[in-house]
Amino acid sequence: AGVAVVGMAIPVLASSGPIASVRRSVGRQLTRTAAHRTGLDVAFVLFAAVLLWELRVNGAPISESFRGSVGIDPLLVAAPAIGLAAGAVLTMRVVPALAVALERLAARRGGVVGSMAARSIARRSSRYSRSALLLVVAVAIAFLAATYQRTWHQSQVDQVATTIPVDLMAAPSDVGPPPAMTEARAAYRATEGVDEAGPVVQQAFDLRLPDGRGTFVALVPELAADRVELRSDLAEEPLADQLRALVEARPALSVVALPADAAQLRVTVETDIRSTSAGPSSIEPKIGPLDLEVTAIVRDAAGLLRRAPSTGTVGHDERVAEIPLGLTLADSTAAATDAPLQLVALELTTTIPPGTVAHGAAEVTGLEVATGVADDPTAVPEWVPIDWAAATPAWTWAKVLVPRFDPDGTVTSDGPPATVRLHEDPRPAGLDELTLTVGPRELAGLPDVALPSLADHRLVSLVAPRPDGTIAVTQGFADTRRLDVVGRIALAPTLDPTRPAAIVDLPTMQLAEWVRTGALMPADGWWLSVAPDADPATVATELAAASYPLQATAVRAEAIAARARDPFQAGVTSILGLVAGAALLFASIGLAVSLWYTVSSRQGEFAVVRALGLGRRQLLGWLALESAFLVMVGVIGGLLVGLVLAWVVMPSITLTTEGRAPVPPPVTAIAWDLMVVLAGLGLLAFALSVLAARRAVASVRVAATLRIAEPDR
Predict the structure, then answer these.
(1) Burial class of residue 274, CB neighbours in 10 A (0-12, 13-18, 19+)
(2) Secondary structure letter of residue 522 according to DSSP
(3) Fewer CB atoms inside 10 A, N or C side of the chain?
(4) Rounded to an integer, what distance in angstroms lies between the CA atom of residue 465 and that of residue 456?
């Protein structure tokens, strides 16, 4: 580009030779160039347009030969430089046309100064074209250099956002059993500098097709909607709106809503479950009523489930159990719940004594709640009854889980309200762990529920959704899940963009897993957002020492900073800056030479018009209009050329630090503020030209100049 600018400056500098006569200065416009007359310049511009269009369509300087092989096309590689040269050539064609149009407009409007300035520009359009050409090329190069730097930086930010969509990503420690999501989230939210913590689960699936192996990431939409960043063009609708659609697509449940300040539950259970002898035994069997531990399955405001165990048991002698709803962390510290809570189900558990079998039934007959006592353990709770009679008609789902001989449990989906009964054959026997669960009737269909999902384009291109909007995927050898596709995205954060992928609603997935197996799945990763005034690295250190330790796996700010320090990119940016500076310098020199030549070669013309009555102010206005035309055409033309080239070229030359095409594709980051700067520089150049013209006008000597022009007698 610098060589091109130098080459374009030579004609302007060479045009400052001695003046033959006043007649040439007032100028009959010399002829057009040969390229202009034959139309070669238009052909060249069309050729450049075709190259730029092909580069835009391909997205890279590659093409396919007639033999079908794909390789780098030298013409497409040179397309940006050819486009810049085409912009310069187009300037030589446009400036004369603008000058003629300006002359006609001035003639209709009248006025001596405007008409004379327009006429002068029209008669000297070739000279002005050369000066404007330098400005167009210089402004375009400067604009392209700034736009490339910003586009590259924004592309790095977008690439990091697809792999690290939040401030901090972390994985739980492998030491000890994984904590429940709700307890772990409460611990992380209490960590200094953490704004929010969201659990995630990644699972692989298979479409049973070539290239059909993919992954989905399950997350909590309520927590991710305002914190996970994904470029707007990578989804059919804004990601936040699509994540909220996942919430709306969750299966409805007849849960019992608890007050926002609920601190305890009191459950009344009528039970006749007892153990009887299983037959001859070498030990003395413990026969009689069995005590049951009561556990509430509650769902918090984020949709996550947790178990809240009772402080005592129910049985033949005690029918009431109290359940604290507060959270207690691993270090015995209390943590706030994400209220309001919902009661999803109640579990009754026991272990059958050796040498016995169990039989009987249990019915939940009452429910009360105490509010506002969590912070004061010495306070006497005030119990408020819940209208259990209104809730129980919908609580007709019951499950008996005896893992030893019935891992999936025996389900009654339309039994007596809030009642669970042991089956007759086989009866649970000694040492069996027994879990009896009651809940809303809608739980019966949850093991096979379609998980609300956002599918990426690759997934829906391989398997079109069924009429009901679902896609069946296989996990393991025979386990099949259905995904309820409620939205589509170009790619899923953190997942391989070359494989099918989806975002899944984690609360629905957790609820379905609990109904199917009785277990609450833990998170295998955490996405955390950091407070604006907190340092992510410091927060990562704090999380490593939390009640449930987390090991930071990625910090977005550090990843962006590491990419910004790329030495190759720093070299490219420096070179482009030098080229832009050199272009602006040569354009300034060319403009200064052009203005000097214009003023010095037209002394006779100025003397004549002064002698005819044109005042100094009018002459100064004449020159100011000529300078304004030159600067405006150069700056506006350069910005237009720069905008077109930036739109076409930037997506194909913005690569990763490894030289590959970035994911997601880059979006041109237009340097709008630089346009203002360049416009300001144009105004400065105009002001300087007016000052120079003012001095030139003041130096015009009418009598002396006219006397020199007289022929010798």
Answers:
(1) middle
(2) P
(3) C
(4) 12
- d(C-alpha 491, C-alpha 162), whole Å: 8
Give the C-alpha distances (Å, rounded to integers) separating 440 from 87, 248, 254, 392, 414.
71, 19, 6, 8, 10
Q: Which two tokens stand for residue 79?
A: 């397309």
Task: Walk along the chain (713 residues) in steps of 10 and give the mean pLDDT of each run.
Answer: 46 43 41 66 83 73 54 66 82 81 79 78 76 84 87 88 92 84 92 93 92 93 88 83 93 93 93 84 80 95 94 88 89 85 95 87 93 65 89 91 79 88 77 89 90 93 87 80 92 91 96 91 94 91 89 91 82 83 81 73 74 77 81 87 84 66 82 82 80 72 62 51
Q: CA separation (Å) from 267 to 154, 306, 518, 537? A: 57, 17, 21, 46
State whether the Cα torsion 690-695-696-701 is positive or negative: positive
Contact at 8 Å (CB) between 547 and 191?
no
Sheet of strand 288-289, all strands in order from the earlier edge strand to the far edge:
288-289, 274-277, 356-359
How many other C-beta atoms are found inside a 10 Å radius of the C-beta of residue 554?
20
Phi-psi region of 73 (alpha: psi -120 to 50; beta: other; left: phi over 0): beta
H or E segment and range at residue 516: helix 506-517
Beta bridge partners of 297: 307, 345
Number of alpha helices (DSSP H) and beta strands (DSSP E) in the chain: 21, 28
- CA 383 – CA 374 distance, rounded (Å): 13
How many residues are recorded in the chain?
Answer: 713
